[in-house]
Amino acid sequence: MAQENTSDKSVSEISNVIDFGKIFRNYLHHWWWFVISLILCCGLAFIYVKKKNPVYLVKGLMMVNQEEDGGVNKSGSITAMLGGIIGGGGSSSNPENEMMKMTSQTNLSDVVNTLHLQYNYWSVDGILRKKIWLYPNTPIAINIPQSILDTISVATKFHIRREKGEKDFTIRVDQDGNKLYEKTFTRFPYTAKTPYGSFTLTLTDSYNPQEALDLYALAASTPSAVEGLRERLAVTYLSKKADAIQIDLEDVCIKRGEDVINTIMRLYNDRRARDRYDHNKATLDFLNDRLLSLYNEIDEQDTKVEQFKRENRIVDAEAEASYIFTRMGSIDEQYAQAKTRLATYDLFLDMLTNPRTRNEQIPFTAADLSMSESYGRFMTNYNDLINQRIELEMTAKPGARSLDVLNQRIDALRETIINSLRREQTNQKLALEQLEKEQRQRDSRIGGMPAMEHRLLSFERDRVVKNQIYAYLLQKREETQISLSQQEPVGKIIDPAYPESKPVAPKKMLILAVAFLMGLIVPAALIQTRAFATSNKAKASTIA
Q1: pTM for the full predicted model
Q2: Sheet with strand 131-133: strands edge to edge
Q3: Stretch 364-391: mean pLDDT, rounded?
Q4: Is 170 helix (H, G, I), strand (E, B) or coil?
Q5: Which of 258, 263, 351, 541 is 20 to 30 Å apart from 33, CA to CA?
Q6: Which residues contact 441 (CB under 8 A, 6 or more apart)?
Q7: Which of 263, 201, 284, 199 is nearest to 476 (CA)?
Q8: What pLDDT does residue 57 have?
């Protein structure tokens, strides 16, 4: 019994040794299997390469950060603070934000609608020939109403034929592999009514009545066309130290790829130009209103000064005011600063409550206004929320819940800032009252100063403050008008769309190499499977 077990173990060990020579001889015995497999696999690969249209990579390059409105001066001066409030500052754009704008649903939908990318036209000349893409010179154009084009869920395929010398056209419409419509007609424009809506065929300038026609077309919905475009599109910035954005697109039609990239850059520039115009127009309207109000205040102040000088027979008011300013010292300087700061608060509060500028960013810090750090955090959070809303408006649909929630947060934070600002106004008024009290105490110590000098001092002080603000607003209005008249695009196109010389797909040598390997692997696997089955069958017979 032990001898039989030892014998069976030896046989098992011998059977477990792989006989590569036997396997190779078996392969040679079935050599014709390899020949047939290589012919089939390489033939299919050749047919695929022969029919597959080459895919080209089209590129474009744009510089997104250009000088716009100028930055906010951070010197801390009153003029700089006013400039920040009025102008809003012109900080550089973040390249990643600009990339999001370029690839947003809104921008890509505009590109699709502008170039009619919902439609693809081609013809086929022979069974093994590649598709001949007819963009943009299709002989027949298909027009589907936009309301239907935006809602269809399945792509619709059209096949339009006319034999040479014939007058009749034949059209067939398929949807999801099922025939939807088939008719013969002779005249254009032709309107066909289907269960899923009507479409119209029109002849274009590229139509040649002397030639036969065999045209294919595929119509997809706008969202589907946008999704297909997004899959083939790549937008990247070249370096963190550069503001250049590169746009890459893979397409079988070079002309279409060039048009898509150039249109993306053009629509991006148009949208940025409209945003810049709207911002400058709102700023200009605000400046005009404020200048008119200040002009009336200054004119009223000048009238009071003139009346006062006439009543008190003052000839050289500037000399007398200069003497008084010299005697005022540091208290007068503090008073002027407090008065100007209060005017700045009024101007800032007007900006936050004005419908045309209330949604602009706050371009300065609380330190510039000598306010607390907590107020500065409010302004920083407010600017962050404004940035989030700008980015969300590029991607979210109108009326989106997330946009409404963000607007509510912005309104609530703006109300908090306004309330804090009003408290600061109250505190500043109290400080002014204290300074005036100190002035009265000092004036009582000066002695002998005529009462008219006190009155004249008040007039001159108010006029200096208003004239300083008025002069700056005039300068800012001129700068805004210049910006409003600028025609140069915000994004500078460095390289218009251009294709690479060699296609990126299909990779012919790789496909043929894979087909050759498959031609060897498939018959080898079949032979080994067959041999294994035969061996198992023989073992089963032996055991039986």
Answers
A1: 0.59
A2: 131-133, 119-124, 213-219, 156-162, 169-175, 178-185
A3: 72
A4: strand
A5: 541
A6: none
A7: 284
A8: 92
**Rounded CA separation 89/70 (Å):** 6
Question: Do the Cβ atoms of 120 and 232 come closer than 8 Å?
Answer: no
φ, ψ of residue 207 to 5 degrees: the values are -75, 135
Tokens of 113: 């609608």
Top-ranked range on mean pLDDT: pick from 133-147, 250-264, 409-423: 250-264
Per-residue tokens: 164? 């040479």
Considering all CA atoms of the chain, what is the largest pairwise distance in Å, rounded to the nearest integer?
145
Separation of alpha carbons 37 and 517, rounded Å: 10
What distance in Å separates the CA atoms of residue 83 and residue 95, rounded to the nearest whole number? 26
Prior bond of 136 cis (ω within 30°): yes
In this model, does residue 363 exceed pLDDT 50?
yes
**The one-letter amino acid at 299:** D
**Whole-number Å distance between alpha carbons of 206 and 140:** 8
Q: Which residues contact 298 (CB under 8 A, 6 or more apart)?
A: 463, 466, 467, 470
The two three-digit tokens of residue 525, written as one number: 């696997």
Residue 157 and residue 220 in contact, taking contact as beta carbons nearer than 8 Å: no
Q: How far apart are CA 138 and CA 23, in angstroms?
A: 59
What is the token pair recorded at 36? Answer: 């047939």
Residue type, 482: I
According to DSSP, residue 464 is labeled H
User: Tokens 């934000």 map to which residue?
Assistant: 97
pLDDT at 520 over 50: yes
Q: Residue 197: which region, alpha, beta or left (left: phi > 0; alpha: psi -120 to 50)? A: left
For 36-40, which contacts have Cβ atoms below 8 Å and span 24 or more sequence positions?
36/523, 37/518, 37/519, 37/520, 37/522, 37/523, 38/516, 38/519, 38/520, 39/519, 40/519
Measured distance CA(34)–CA(120) in Å, rounded? 42
d(CA 39, CA 519): 8
Going by the DSSP 8-state scheme, the letter that residue 463 receives in this structure is H
Q: Please report where in the chains the tokens 């946009």 appear, as a residue.
A: 403
Helices 20-29 + 508-543 axis angle, to 10: 110
- Phi, psi (degrees; rounded to nearest 5) at 224: -65, -40
Q: What is the pLDDT of residues 270-297, one digit of tens each?
A: 888 888 888 888 888 888 888 888 888 8
Interior/surface letters 298-321, b for 16+ CB within 10 angstroms, e for the rest: beebeeebeebbeeeebeebeebb
d(CA 254, CA 500): 10
Q: What are phi and psi of 240, to 5 degrees?
A: -70, -20
CA pair distance 187, 514, nearest whole angstrom: 50
pLDDT digits (tens, 9 = 90+) for 494-514: 889 999 888 887 777 888 888
3-state SS of 31-51 is HHHHHHHHHHHHHHHHHHHHH
C-alpha–C-alpha distance, residues 208 and 215, integer Å: 13
